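Protocol step 4 of 5: obtain the predicted structure for the target chain.
Materials: sequence only (see below). No template structures provided, no constraints applied. The aim of this step is simply to have a reference model before the mutagenesis design in step 5. Sequence pasted as it appears in the construct record:
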Amino acid sequence: MAETYVAGLDQSTQGTKAVLLDTEGRIVARAYAPHRQPISPEGWVSHDGEEIFENCVKLIRRVVEEARIDKSAVAAIGISNQRETTLAWDRKTGKPAAHAVVWQCARGREITDALTDEGFRDQVRQKTGIPLSPYFPAAKAAWLLRHTGAGELAKAGRLCLGTVDAFLVYKLTSGQVFKTDYSNASRTQLFNIRELSWDAELCRAFGVPLEALPQVESSDGDFGATTLEGYFDRPVPVLAMMGDSHAALFGQGCVRPGMAKATYGTGSSVMMNVGNRPIDSASGLVTSLAWGRGGAVSYVLEGNLNYTGAVITWLKDDLGLIENAAETEKLAEEANLEDTTYLVPAFTGLGAPYWDDAARASLTGMSRLTGKREIVKAALECIAFQVTDILRAMERDAGITLSELRVDGGPTANRYLMRFQSDIAGVRLRVPVNAELSAFGAAAMAGMGAGMFSEELLERIAVREIYEPRMTEAERKKKYSGWKNAVNKTIGRN
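Step 4 output (structure tokens):
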């Protein structure tokens, strides 16, 4: 039998990655391309959907050519995507009505505030597992309908509304397939996670036409086939689609209840598999669908953070304190260990478990001796503090004590951050050799659908490093108490 391969796309906030897996699940080629991050004077964050699509096409071609394989050997494609980022486009032409509204962007706050005043908060949470917030796509879609050409497309019956995955599949299949998967749908605030369907009442509340939404498919379903704009001689099937954090959970092998992972990216997602029944959070977390697979669904508890890796970008691009992210490890190691500076990165509000959209960032606890190194140290540590907030909330909701956290994403290369994360959370950290867990997870699921892999592949993931907690309980409590005080000051609780 001829050698076959599966391609994985991870379309994320800062850019897009592509990988190519062989029949052993090894990454034989990888490629990356950034895209622009337009920010308006109001602070609105946008992406150009067409640019993202073009990058996806280019990158799959690139990994095939880099691996020097016959392009006919690509058996399937799997896609993972930045979640919540929302697009509106013309069903007839595939052209976006406007730039995508990025998940970080809270421009739909007036819409969610109005629904709160109308008493919809509890209903949204009960049906979707998600607190009413402009972070999620429903408010973003409503904003696009009110302020862009999406409204006219809706009147003409030509509107498509969806997250990045639905847009990419639509474009890859030349408009033949308009689908999303359970994981992405469950994050929209328009999908009933118990009934597994779009909720007509919520759609009416947000003013989103039900007919403009994609068909919801199992994550290992049939998402059509693509020639990649004529590159492939035959259509290649798209056999998996998941939100990036869900794909990372799958790629980490967290397929059993009680297993947890944290993905460190521009923002971060901390996620725990809770099995085939949803758990309602009393601690500010959200309940979503992990995936649909093999005719069944799995649920997760999750906490999302707006600014983790993006804090490092802020240090570099806005403050000019560093030239590249790699510098932060050494600077933090050289910082004064006794410095009590805390950064609360609420640049666009605070996500889980606080959910304060109005909060703004603060830098507190500085002394006259606080300098560049100490600010960099505080920036790294705020990432770990935020993740720990979520882990503790998960333990309360699920009634378990975590002993291990599986981690992935670029920032896991930072040894200072990983050591501090293990110490402040008091858990073992398992870092895989492969940093592209979202792309790998999507490709692995597609490969299983193509008959190339079994689930045993996930048990063979190589581990690069394991961090064990070394901090004393007294020191951990002192540092974490300082963080909580800083957060409380930021959101006005003190």
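Step 4 remarks: The chain is about 35% helix and 25% strand. Residues 138 and 301 are 20 Å apart (CA to CA).
Proceed to step 5.
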